[in-house]
Structure formats: structure tokens, C-alpha cells
Amino acid sequence: MLENRKIIMVTPERLGDTLMCTPAIHYLKYYHPTIDIDIIALSELSAEVLKNNPDIRRVFVLPSQKTLKNLELQYDLAINIYNYPLAREYIRALNIPAKHIPPENFNIHQAEQALLFVQSLTPGQPEILERRYQLFPDTEDTAHIENLLEAHHIDFKKDILIGLHVGCHSLAKKNFAFLKKMTHPKVWPFKSIVELAQKLYQENPHIKTIITGSKSEKTLGKKLVKLSPNIINLIDQTTVSQLCVLMKYLKVFISPDTGLMHIACSTDVPLIALFGPTHLTRTGPYPETSHLTILQAPTMAEITADKVFHTVMQKI
User: Fold this and answer.
1) Which residues fall within 8 angstroms of residue 226, CB to CB, at 6 or more apart?
2) Are the C-beta atoms of 255 and 278 separated by less than 8 Å?
3) Fewer Cβ neighbours under 10 Å: the N or C end of the chain?
């Protein structure tokens, strides 16, 4: 039985992988409200995803050996919700009883597998009522996004805001020269991004394309702004929670298989997910909703700007 137990869990390093853990964490707390759940996060980004989460008591980011020794006596159970070598190392160091998620199953979504795993730990295995990812932005996050949009002279009555994410985690250290030529399986080509933005502007000058991305994509963002007058560059200007708020102002969000796509899944924004030969079943949009459209091709380059443009126009 889990009642009244103090549990520590280890969450992954990446944004999307951590988000995929949040429905399972919520399930545990919902059906066992007397438990305390603390988290060892494998990165600052992972901890950022869990900010303000009411299901979680405390978050430790990559705790030291000394901290682990102090934690060892505070918990009844460790739960490894993401089968990652570093997670197992931390759990071994705690030297307490542990439950480990089975090896990854590519026939089932990663978030669903985590949910089924914690369901198996619960007597009677009660129904899964909530599958959506959990993010909890606050009033400061909302104010930040409103200030950013106002700084770009957005007319909230006339302008139509379309979000578009560029880049992905595995390109984080590449330079612009590489990005412009890239054929990475997760990333939509640079020329397609430019073509789409230009098509949207030609259709209606009030359609503003808001691009998002990480610090490493700032040069790419500057190049894109020069090539289309309707692009608003918010690359490296927002946190995870602030991006969640941004979705509420968008008519559509377009994203490849990245963490930003999963942030969109935590909201009601109509999502166009672009997939090449990556694992749609394992890491695609979750859960499936009526406002989701998946465009998939053997390669990302085969998803044309024209196809994305027509899909956007159907949604706005």
C-alpha cells in the first residue's frame, strides 16, 4: 500500500520526456492523496517543467552524494518512472526499496507506458481519468508573455498569431550554416519555414508568425526575421511555463517532434505536428484530440510549405 508513504521519483533530463511523466505523477497523487512525492530532476530544464506542480512537494536538481545521504532516511520508496541509466544510479545511491518501469515499449506512447506503470502499483488499478500533461504557469508568466507581445505591437483584435517552432534538442549545438543545409530527421527545412511565413503574410498581413526556439537557434531566428516581414522572433525569450501561456494567444501552433510540441499538448491550442521518420507512436502528440493534425512524410523535407499553409488556413 502507498498510503502515507514518502516517495521519491527521478524525472528525465529533457523537457518533453519530463512532461510525459506528469500524468503518471498526477495519477499517483490523485488516488493516494496522503503520499508525499519528491523529485530528483536530472536537469534544470526538467525542474522548470515541474514548477508549481501541486502534486509535488519538493524538487532536487542533480543532488550531490552528500545530499543523497541526507535523503536516504527520509523516504519509504523510490520510483523510477523513466528507464535511464542516470536515474538508476541515483536510485541505487539512495539504498531504499525501489520500483522500476519496464523497458521501453515502442508500440505504446511513452506517457501511456508511465501511466500504466504507476497504475500497476495501485491496488485495484483504478481508471486513468486524466492523460493531459500538467503545467502550472502563474500570473508572472502571463504578464511576461503579454509584455512580449505588446513590445512587438501586436493588435489583439486584428492580428492572427501562428506559432512555429524551429530546431530541436539534438541540434542545440549546431551553427546557422549547418541549420540552413540541415536534413535532420526531426527538423523542418529552413527554406520551408521561410516559404510558409511568406505565404501566410501574402494571404493576410495580419497573420503574424511567432517563432520559438532555444538559445542556440537565435542566429537562425535573426535570419528568418530578415526574410519575411510578419515573423516575430521570441527565440530564447521564454521559459517552459511562459510558453504554455503563449499557446493561449495562438490560433495554431506548428511544431516538429520536440519538447515545444508537448507543451502545446498541455493546452487547447490547435496543433499541427510535423513528423518525418521518428517514432510517432512512442513520442507523438498525446493524448490525441480533435484539434490535432499530424502531417507525416518519409522525410521532413517532403512536408511542403504549401501543405502546411493549407492546413493552417483550415484551422483559422
Assistant:
1) none
2) no
3) N
| Residue 291 identity (one-letter amino acid) | H
Asked if 231 contacts 211 with a C-beta cutoff of 8 angstroms, the reply is: yes
**pLDDT value of position 171:** 46
pTM to 2 decimal places: 0.91
To the nearest 10 degrees (0 to 180), the angle between helices 218-227 and 190-203 is: 40
Cell of 132: 493531459
CA 313, CA 316: separation in Å to the nearest integer? 5
Report the pLDDT value the prediction gives residue 70, as an integer from 0 to 100: 86
The DSSP line for 210-278 is: EEE--GGGHHHHHHHHHH-TTEEE-TTS--HHHHHHHHTT-SEEEE-SSHHHHHHHTS---EEEEESSS
Q: Half-sphere exposure (CA, 13 Å, Cβ side) for 287?
A: 13
Q: What is the DSSP letter of 170?
A: G
Buried/exposed code over 153-187 (b: 16+ C-beta within 10 A; e: otherwise) = ebeeeebbbbbbbbbbbebeebebeebeebebbbb
Write down the pLDDT at residue 169: 42
Residues 6+ positions from 40 with CB-CB distance below 8 Å: 8, 9, 10, 11, 59, 60, 61, 62, 63, 87, 90
Contact 172, 118 (CB under 8 A): no
Mean pLDDT by 10 residues, the chain (316 residues): 89 96 98 96 97 97 90 90 91 93 94 97 94 98 97 94 78 48 72 95 96 88 90 96 98 95 97 93 94 95 97 96
- Total Cβ atoms within 10 A of residue 267: 20
CB-CB contact of 311 with 253 (8 Å): no
